[in-house]
Structures are given as structure tokens and as C-alpha cells.
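Structure request: AB hydrolase-1 domain-containing protein, Gossypium raimondii.
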Amino acid sequence: MAKLSLGSTFSIFHSRHIRPPLAGCHVTEMTVADHHPSLEVVGGARDRFLPSLHTNLRLPYNPFPLIAWNRHVETIFASFFRSIPQVRLRRECLRVKDGGSVALDWISGDHRRLPPDSPVLILLPGLTGGSQDSYVRHMLTKANGKGWRVVVFNSRGCGESPVTTPQFYSASFLGDTYEVVKHVGARYPEANLYAVGWSLGANILVRYLGKESHACPLSGAVSLCNPFNLVIADEDFHKGFNNVYDKALARALCKIFKKHALLFEDMGGEFNIPLAANAKSVRDFDEGLTRVSFGFKSVDDYYSNSSSCDSIKHVKRPLLCIQAENDPIAPSRAIPREDIEENPNCMLIVTPKGGHLGWVAGAEAPLGAPWTDPVVMDFLEYLERGASKTGKFLGDSEAVQRSSGELHHIEV
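Returned structure:
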């Protein structure tokens, strides 16, 4: 279950814009004035998507004074002190084909308040993250305030999601994502589907986009703080202050594991349950449990084959990637810039600072939403305006409904 989300890491220590023409309209000439030089903006879809982000990207990226002088200070500050919007959620427990369970958290009352064709946004938190995390709550309330239906996809064991089989989730496992997207699509067949993922959730989301390719039922997606190359991320994870994050995430994984330890009591073979239960690092947990559960020969084999950098070239839906140059968890050198620049569906924004899931900058800094939230919404609303005119990027909706009919769910 490796790699990473810091939004939840430190929570475990606590338990106006210019509207462009329609999507699909291409701008053939771009100048430096189209984005501020403090930002790196590249990608095969740059000319197509950049006009929708004019207002935000024309301004300099100004991190909040004192907080953003150090990437670790910014990362920790955002995790400890960023406000957590209060929202009433309605939980749906979804039983998937292998008997496992995930928890979908919807905003209470939206099923009555919003029309059936309101766009749906699926949120994928990072490792051990869930609907309780501040970065998730801010995105949820921002989108919902603009009339979007939002659902948080809490992976197995995360956000108090039940664990009903001796298997968690991992960077390599896409089965639950397939079923959640199909289920949500069948529930709202008139709506366009979108997704936003952070850290591990971003890695899983981009791998899903690449695997589904032309058949992907999503009309667009956003990846934030994606580690992209888990081998490189793992190398950096054991350097200097990063050991603090590693130990914190390991404690979070052990805490989840111990709640469900009885399910794993009789596991034999290559499993090392004591190592997983008492892991001092994420790598320990992955060695004892994750890589064996998902059939990998070693932890390095698991990381190498679960990296989303290899998926970018296969993405056929609009994808915005936002990274921070100084991210301690998702190293800048791991970003697959060449593939993003060659893919006509992808665009990359790199901010000079931001830490991991920090981005303490913009109008709501330091305690409000991260700088990225309005950029994400500008992008998604741009896609939605285009999709509503040109039709959804969906395959056979009847097939989606039939497939979803195989799922079992209970609302609690």
C-alpha cells in the first residue's frame, strides 16, 4: 500500500476569472504574458487549456510569508493548521466483487437538491487519507458551492472505511477504482464524471486513465502532488527530514492494520505479518504485506510496476497535473515532462514552492483553501462547458449500468 499522502500524514498526529470559448477551441499563439514566469506551464494540451486559467496563472505565485520559506514548514503547517470545512456527509458502503468494501461519502441532501445531470466529481485522497482531511474538504466544498455533486472515495481501511477481506489497497490496484467509477456513472447516467486525486490517489487515478485510455468514462481529471515514479520517491523518502514523514505514515498504516488484524491471522507463504503490524517505515509495511498481496517479487518490483509515469502516454482524456518544485514527497525530477509535453490531452503546472499538499498561497492563505483549488475548478468548469455542448466522453452507458448492477451497497 505504499506512497504517499501527507495531507493525512500529519492529521494522524491529531486524530473572477476570464471565461474562454468552448473546450476544443485551440489557441495557436501563446506568449509569456499568458502565464507568470514564476510558474512552469507545459504540455501537449497547453494551448488548449491555458486560456481557461488566465486569471490565476497570470499572477505571480506568492507563497505566504514566513510559512513557505521551507518546504517542510509549509507541508506541516498545512496539515496541522489549515481549516477543515464542516460538511454533513452521507456514507455509502460499497461491497465490490472480491468481497472487499470501500466507503463513498456524499454531501448530505445533494441527491434531492441537485438535478440529475449535475456534473459529478470523484475525489481520491492520498495514502491513509479520507473525507476527514482538510485538503479533501476544501475541494469538496469549493466544487459543491459551484453546483457540482461530489463524492469522496475512501479506499479500504481509510476514512474508517470497513475492511472485509484480508486485502488493503495499493498503488498497483485499480480494481476498486473501476468499480467505483462504474457505480457512480450508473447512479447518475445523465451526468459527466470527473475525478481529482492527491498523492497516492493521483498515482492511482493517472494509472486508471492510462489503462482505460479511449474507453475511460471520465470526461476529465486532475492530478495533484503525484509521486509519478515510486522508485525515485522511495529513494528520497529515506533522506533527512523525510524520515519523519515515513515514520508517521508507517504508524498510520499500522494503526489501520491492527484494527483488522484478525483477518490476517492465518496468512502464510511469503507474508510477514509481524513486520507489517510493527512497521517502522512504509517500505517495511509493503515488504510484509502489500507486495505479497498483489503478487510482486519484491518491494522494488512493486514500486517499479505501480508508477503512473508510465501511464501518461496512454491518457486520452483531458488531464491537468499540478506539482510543487520543492515537494519533499513527490520529487520534481520524477515528473514525466517529456510524455506530458507529447500528449495532446495533458498539461502540467509546476509551482516554485508548495511543499507536499501545502500550497499556502493565494486569496485564502494561510488557513483557507490551497492555491490549487480555484485553478482546479477553472479547469473542470472549462471541460464541463465543453462536454455539455459536445457530448460526454463516455462509452456505452448501458454497459456501465449493467456492470454496476453486479455491485452491492448499503447506505448507512
